[in-house]
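User: Predict the structure for this protein chain, please.
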Amino acid sequence: MNIACPLCTSHHIEHYYRDKKRTYQRCLQCNLIFVPDEYHLAQAQEKQVYDFHENSLQDAGYRKFLDKLLAPLSQRLAPHARGLDFGCGPGPTIKPMMEEQGFSVNNYDIYYANNPAALSRHYDFITCTEAIEHFSRPGKELSRLDSLLESGGFLGIMTKRATTKDAFSQWHYKNDPTHICFFSEATFRWLADWLNYDVDFPGNDTVILQKR
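Assistant: Here is the predicted structure, written as structure tokens:
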């Protein structure tokens, strides 16, 4: 099978699962589960899906959801730390939430905050909430985020984690057509070794990596 893993570029790939709409492959090196390119939406179609997302600072439920990552991340940060919210979406909420605590945050999103200058600076922390599962080339994007982090900096990620094949077959998360990469705890441990980070899992769908 001449398919390369979009995270680690290995060709050691196995068929993992098939549903009525797509097939899913699994990398035997990094354990990433991914959807082959032919099932990826065009950018215009992808943005149409994102345009329906209704997230805002005034939504107490959404703030509580984000706090699953932001609370443990904030405890690790020095006062006035500088951050980037990568993939902030149409209703950026992390920036004001973190600025309430005295941190400074830039937004970046290919569709909603396409500000290349934000990717030319260095940061003490980067957040990526419910975005990594949309990356068509996660290896490339995570390498870019690594290049923006100061030594000792933190990368905070929120995404639901894959567990077993039986659970995957019933998993609603895979049914979103914009979700094309699925990370497990083993994948994040591989990522930490690859990028030379320490890794911690404060919750079932959160991970915090610290650059060594």
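The longest strand covers residues 149-158.
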